[in-house]
Amino acid sequence: MGKEKNPVTDNFFEEGLHRLGLCQSRISSLLGRYIEEIELFNPAYKLVKVKDRRELIVKHIFDSLAPLDTLRGLSNETGKIADIGSGAGLPGIPLAICMDGVEFTLVERMGRRAGFLRDTIAVLGLSNVRVEEAEMEKLWHSSKERFNLIVFRAFKPLEARLLKRLLRLLGPGGILAAYKGRRQRIEEEMSVIQWKQAPWEIIPVEVPFLHEERHLVVIRN
Q1: Dihedral angle of Cα 110, 115, 116, 122, to the nearest 10 degrees
Q2: What's the distance, CA 51 to chain centroid?
């Protein structure tokens, strides 16, 4: 993948943002620069597995932003949000670009990826984002900070031990929001772990140009 502009891709990118209700030039510009940063460093850092720019935009950028309205409602666009296992900054950076009044913490254990996140935040000039280079399991012990909302895409499948640890990082009334795929698979996962410790629900999500089921699993502390 290179940084050359592709008119078809650019038009498709703007159309997807329009479908998501994100037509502001600031958002489009920052997301475009973020995409270029991923493309530039992906060969060396293995940030995402994609075959081209279109797949990067649909399966990672649009996917990260698809539940934006739901997440805005859950957070009331206040407080602190953590992206656990952030990797390339997904979904944290796209969300932070669109929720610039909310503080975001990107939690990433790998040093090179954490370095990429710091550099990208500086390049984009995002003042509402910081990076925590740490194992998720150790974060509860090393930090007294608690979050209002935790988002994550990287963990598969859902399992009880993981969810218990994530709930520890939430403040009172906090919420976990897991990006997931097919509803049947989610129900099977939750059934296997027999999760009854906190109320949860499955919210359908529509990702522009993605013809696959996507859902948000919301678990309340």
Answers
A1: 150
A2: 20
CA atoms lying within 13 Å on the CB side of residue 126: 34
Coil, helix or strand at residue 39:
helix
pLDDT tens by residue, 69-88: 999 999 887 889 999 999 99
Residue labelled with tokens 């620069």: 33
Take residue 33 and report the two structure tokens written for it.
């620069």
Confidence (pTM): 0.93
Burial of 50 (0-12, 13-18, 19+ CB in 10 A): middle
Interstrand relation of 170-180 and 147-152 (parallel, antiparallel or unpaired): parallel
pLDDT tens-place string over residues 202-211: 999 999 999 9
Residue with tokens 């090393």: 142
Domains of the chain: 7-62 (no CATH), 66-220 (3.40.50.150)
Picking from 65, 19, 53, the residue whose alpha carbon sits closest to that of residue 179 is: 65
Which secondary structure element, helix H or strand E, spans residue 170, and what is its range? strand 170-180
- Residue bearing tokens 């060396």: 44
Q: Which two tokens stand for residue 7?
A: 């008119």
How far separated are the first and last CA of the chain, in Å rounded?
A: 41
Which whole-number Å values give the CA distances from 161 to 14, 32, 157, 182, 190, in the listed order?
Answer: 40, 37, 11, 22, 12
Instruction: Give residue 158's pLDDT band: very low, low, confident or very high (50, 70, 90).
Output: confident
Angle at the Cα of 213 from the Cα atoms of 174 and 83, rounded to 5 degrees:
30
